[in-house]
Amino acid sequence: MVFDKKGNMVIGMVLVLVVIFSAGITAVFMNNIVTEVNDDIQADDTFNAESKTILSNHESRYSGASDGIIAFIFGCLWVLVLVFAFIGNDHPIMYVFLVLMIVIVSLVGGIMSNSWDDLINEDEFSSAPVDFPITDFILSNFLLVMVIMGFSALLTVFIKNRFYG
Predict the structure, then answer these.
(1) Are 157 and 98 in contact (CB under 8 A)?
(2) Nearest to 150 by CA among 2, 35, 37, 11
(3) Does residue 13 lie within any of the structural domains?
(4) Which of 118, 120, 112, 149 is nearest to 136 (CA)?
(5) Tally of domains within the chain
(6) Is residue 127 part of a domain?
């Protein structure tokens, strides 16, 4: 990304939308696959007890580790959006455009939140809110999260222009 252009903050927010949503869905699908593979191996008599124990331990730690990784990526991307907002050369007249873009990106986040809710309400993925509490909170409240992220970035742009000229 070029840092002397306007609108990097909005591009960063779109990046957050795509990365966090796709990471959340990928984690839920992978958790389902890992659980099914573990169940099949636990039922198979050709594997020894040590192998079954190791795989069961990995399967039980997968969802917590994936949830933590997604939370870490989300935090890093939020900081990236704030950095883009701070180093961009936005004129104060661009605030109207930025607010409009934040509203559009937030509405897309709301649509993605509804898609997430539809996914986790399926019987096959009903354990996702329990297995991924942080990811479920972020994606179930994606509209609110994106509004807060957008206006914190907008506040960063305002403070930068106000105090650092």
Answers:
(1) yes
(2) 11
(3) yes
(4) 120
(5) 1
(6) yes
In angstroms, the CA 22 to CA 7 distance is 23
pLDDT tops 70 at residue 99:
yes
140 vs 122: CA distance, rounded Å: 15
Nearest to 26 by CA among 135, 141, 144, 138: 135
Which domain does 145 fall in, by range?
8-163
- The residue among 7, 135, 116 whose CA lies nearest residue 73 is 135
Instruction: Let me know if residue 2 belongs to a domain.
Output: no
- Please state the rounded mean pLDDT for residues 87-102: 79
Residue 156 is predicted with a pLDDT of: 86
In a domain, 96, yes or no: yes
> Token pair of 127, please?
């354990």
- What are the pLDDT digits (tens) for 49-74? 888 898 888 888 988 999 999 999 99
How far is residue 64's CA from residue 163's CA, in Å, rounded to a whole number?
Answer: 42
pTM: 0.86
Number of Cβ within 10 Å of residue 79's Cβ equals 11
Give residue-wise pLDDT tens across range 127-161.
888 989 999 999 999 999 999 999 998 888 888 77
| Measured distance CA(160)–CA(143) in Å, rounded | 26
